[in-house]
Hints:
This protein has an eight-stranded antiparallel beta barrel, surrounded by five helices. The protein is globular. It is built from seven helices and eight strands. It is α+β, with helices and mostly antiparallel strands. It has a single domain, classed as 2-Layer Sandwich (Alpha-Beta Plaits), CATH 3.30.70. Strand 2 and strand 3 form a beta hairpin. It starts with 24 loop residues before the first strand and ends in a 7-residue tail after the last strand.
Amino acid sequence: MNTTTDLPEPRFATAAAPFLEDCAVVELRDYRLHAGQRETLVDLFEREFVETQEACGMRVMAQFRDLDDDDRFVWLRGFADMAARRCGLEAFYGGPVWQRHRDAANATMVDSSDVRLLRPARPAWAAVTPASPRRRTDDFDDIDEVAHAPAAMVVLATLLRPDSIDAAALRVVERELLPAWRDAGVPPCAVFVTENAVNDFPRLPVRTEAQALVWLTRVPQAGAWEQAAARLADNPAWVRRALPALQRGAGATLTLRRLVPTRRSLMR
Length: 268
């Protein structure tokens, strides 16, 4: 989030933050941090950057720790549309909260440019607002969150390929991928593809070198993922049909990451 240029105060009011179902544009933001700085950023983010971003018309959808990399922080931010994104980002990064805390936030980061601009692959595959509200900043006990990490986690799957995620690819998702993951006991809770609109807030760059298919899956227990992965490996719908069809073309890659929601993550 290295938006270090001084910006003018916003000169407009912004709309209310959208529900998850109404986030037609989503940023997937993956930060590489300095060693030992993740908890510093998580604490600062959850104290200062949640309600203040949502007051600018954006939805802070989820924040995660990477279980396999202590120096990674992943989060998702949603917008009603591209115009709302531009207005919300101008309001937040030009406002007093970011100006006051940006140096502390940026000091934790090695690289904040790994960002993909996404949209729900289909309206029915958008994220769903949970029934339970986000926890308040004062709704925490004294338990060390890291030492007592929750058993539940989220698997983030990112498939990158050079050509577009077209209607044929989405039929593969519908007919092969989603049933296979459901049969493995880990049904995806949201599916996104690259939003190819021009990034009209260039102070926050986004990656455009590949087309992305991204899905998130809640896993009730960390150990359950190993069992689910084994079931997927034995499922022809996944191994013989979905994967070959989706990974067509040179350079296609699939990455699976194990993430744990932070205490104030809306998606859990």
